[in-house]
Amino acid sequence: MIVQLDGLTKRFATPRGWRDAVRAPLRTMKTTVVDDVSFSVAEGEIFGLLGQNGAGKTTLFKMLSTLIIADEGRATIAGLDVREEPEAVRRLLAPVIANERTLYWRLSARENLRLYCALQGLRGTAARAELERVLVVTGLADTGEKMVGMFSTGMRQRLLIARALLGHPRVLLLDEPTRSLDPISARDFRRFLRETVVGTQGCTVLLATHDADEVWDLCDRVGVLERGRLLAVESTALLRHRSGSDRFRVWLRTHDGDAAVAQAATAGLALKRRGTSVDAGWDEFECTIAGGAEGSARALALIGADGRSVARFERAQPSLADLIERVLATPRDVGNA
User: Is the dihedral of CA 173, 243, 51, 224 positive or negative?
Assistant: First the structure.
């Protein structure tokens, strides 16, 4: 395992009002932000940390990238202790924070990368070769002379990745990388991460997000964080199954809807109308179907009985709220899963 966390914990001082500070100046109160988190990540894996804002994802990343020190526990990157060998860890790991302002907007992409090559001790021919390599890898070779202030959000995200790839890091930490991207740009960016950053460059990626769709599209495994606690670590497919694989959506002709709902009810299937489809004359319904493929086949036959037309029948992707609710309802020991 290239990344290993064992009991990582971080507490921060709780802000106090001035009255409390005056009455008890020596009293300190702390809030636990990351609470005894343990998991491991294999080399070449895309591992997602899924949680709402304030769940502790960014704090966890800051500990891994040596920006803050854990109060308890231990973390290693390729066998190097984050606390004891921070300089060596920083040569193996690169964090990428969404919308960070450390790029120089009045410089071109090449000038930005040239500066960071110098900061990493790359000079001359080696620096030029490395600079061109990351521009090609991230698809920015044709825009290298363009001023960064004129870049789209997606292009700036690619440039941040290009900067992180300088020096061939083995691990990338991505904190909500598609937060400011439109859906098409986000989809393209996820494909770039999967095919180029992981597939071509061989990086291991830890991805922090509160977007469930991003996890389903991109990650091999996922850990669910809630208020600093790690609730579960699962393969993406298994977590999807545990968190709502039995919910389906079906599209029926509007005039067939009432009859389908009534007939489904007689068989114990609750078919609920969600609203009118974008296609005129069709309505969208949702239902919960147990029994896997066999159960789905029986339900579909029932819904489409008596000549009713079914336009679409698909599994509903669980939302983040659904996922956390299901995981909380199924406590388990995540350990070093």
Answer: negative
Sign of the dihedral through C-alpha 316, 319, 322, 326: positive
The CATH number covering residue 274 comes to 3.30.70.120
Least confidently predicted of 22-26, 188-192, 264-268, 332-336? 332-336
Same domain, 252 and 200: no
d(C-alpha 181, C-alpha 98), whole Å: 10
Cβ density class 204-214: b for 16+ within 10 Å, e for less: bbbbbbbbbbb
Task: Count other Cβ atoms within 10 Å, centred on residue 288.
Answer: 14
In a domain, 179, yes or no: yes
Least Cα distance to 305 among 250, 239, 235, 247 occurs for 250
Question: Does residue 105 sit in the same domain as residue 214?
Answer: yes
Query: Could you identify the residue written with the tokens 């390729």?
Result: 78
What is the C-alpha R_g of the chain? 24
Q: Determine the pLDDT at residue 337.
A: 47
β-strand partners of 97: 175
Report DSSP state, residue 14.
Answer: P
Write the pLDDT tens digit of every residue in 62-93. 999 998 999 999 999 999 999 999 999 988 89
**CATH number for the domain that contains residue 99:** 3.40.50.300
How do beta strands 46-50 and 204-209 pair? Answer: parallel
